[in-house]
Amino acid sequence: MGGRKQKISRDTCSQKLGAEHRKYAKGPTSVWITEDNQVTPSNEDDGLLGKILCPYNLNKAYLKVVRNKGSHGIDKMEVGMLRDYLKMHGSDLIKSIKSGKYQPNPVRRVEIPKEKGKTRPLGIPTVVDRVIQQAIHQVLSPVYERQFSDNSFGFRPGRSTHKALYRCRSYISEGYDYAIDMDMEKFFDQVNHSKLIEILSREIDDDRVISLIHKYLNAGVVVDHKFEKTRQGVPQGGPLSPLLSNIMLNELDRELTRRGHRFVRYADDMVILCKSRRGAERVMESITKYIENRLYLRVNRNKTKVIPFYRIKFLGYSFYKVKGEVRFRIHPKSIAKMRDKVRELTSRSNGWGHAKRKEKLSAFIKGWINYFKLADMKGLMKRIDKWYRRRIRMLIWKQWKRVRTRMRNLVKLGINRQKAWEFANTRKGYWRIAHSYILATSITNERLKEAGYVFFTDYYLKVRV
Question: Cα–Cα distance between 212 and 401 in angstroms, integer?
């Protein structure tokens, strides 16, 4: 950003929160939990921490946590129990934070499945800590938003993956045909606490806020009922971690901007675009040194590489050119993940009935298409639907099981008795039968639609861009 940096102070926050505060009448502030956010602002002039702990901000944070729901932390307190707890203990909680005696609870570690059997660690704070983290986020975020790069899109209001993709496409259209596919190794687990605190201290002049954030960073994690210290990293899962990660990586954004590079970043997923391979290789070497020597993060040198634009995998998408126009397509790995998910949802072993299976498939297909609707994929969707319908027919054939059930259902669907008898007694495999003329003319595409199945092509043609 141009101009002199301004520290986050009580005056700065007063400007952001004051306008909202003025519309509420003055009054007692001991109870701050309401369902409609109609609370009285605090009269206390208590620095930045006072703005974080003012009734309006805390109530807004409480409502946000309740709306997001989510799982319990190590104390097993559910979101539904939060209101009563805060009404009873809210004043003591605020006093302990102001006095510096508050100690956050460790986060509960859970593993989220990824591709190829890998997992991503997720840290779930207690619901009380989620409220406090959200309150901190609400005060710090508007101020840091003014400093963040225009090429940063992750975890920011008014920004999205699609906007990041459009920005990437615009740079490629300008002739930046080579990309540095930057892979920061386990970024959220490798954030250096001392470096992050140093960056925060440049802007925040209230040491109590710095101390509180530091406590959250050092709160530790519970894995399989065993406590482990956290000497580095920002646990994914809390309201504060996305903001802290952006604050950390904003240092990299500034350096890239200072050097005049074209880049697009979504959280720790980044591509840096150059006009030549040789230039990209030079940039990759120098930026890797900056990340490792100045930010104390690790770059995965095996995965970080220079590639032509058509080999980019960014946010599940890839790019290609037609008559000089850069267009979107789906990366093959994204297609493979989608197929795996459809296999899972059309598996007979999950114990679902037809209604639940159709509901799950519909939700997945609509969500997937809405995310990938920028891509040119009409032909792909037709091929996927052909395979998907075959899986549904195979599933139905498996569920019919017995010979008499198969024969009865085939006859009901218009197959003559002789043919129905032959196929009901067949010893051919399920997958082969699912591709047969008999099932294609009995369990037709139209009947599957009438039964409530949603198909990729139909929904894509509704929402395509």
Answer: 61
* Helix residue ranges, H only, 320-416: 332-345, 354-372, 378-400, 403-412
What does the alpha-carbon distance between residue 209 and residue 47 come to, in Å, rounded to a whole number?
A: 10
Helix (H) or strand (E) holding 441: helix 437-442
Q: What 8-state DSSP symbol labels residue 79?
A: G
Cα 369 vs. chain centroid, distance in angstroms? 16
End-to-end Cα spacing for the chain: 34
Which tokens belong to 386? 């052909």
* Distance (Å, whole) CA 349 – CA 6: 59
The alpha helices in 69-176, defined as continuous H runs, are 82-99, 127-145, 161-173
pLDDT for 123-182, tens place per residue? Answer: 899 999 999 999 999 999 999 999 999 999 999 999 999 999 999 999 999 999 999 998
Question: Any idea what the Cα angle at residue 238 is, between residues 66 and 219, rounded to 5°?
Answer: 125
In total, the chain counts a number of residues equal to 465
Alpha carbon distance 259, 315 (integer Å): 25
pLDDT in tens, 18-64: 444 433 333 333 446 666 665 555 444 678 999 999 999 999 999 99
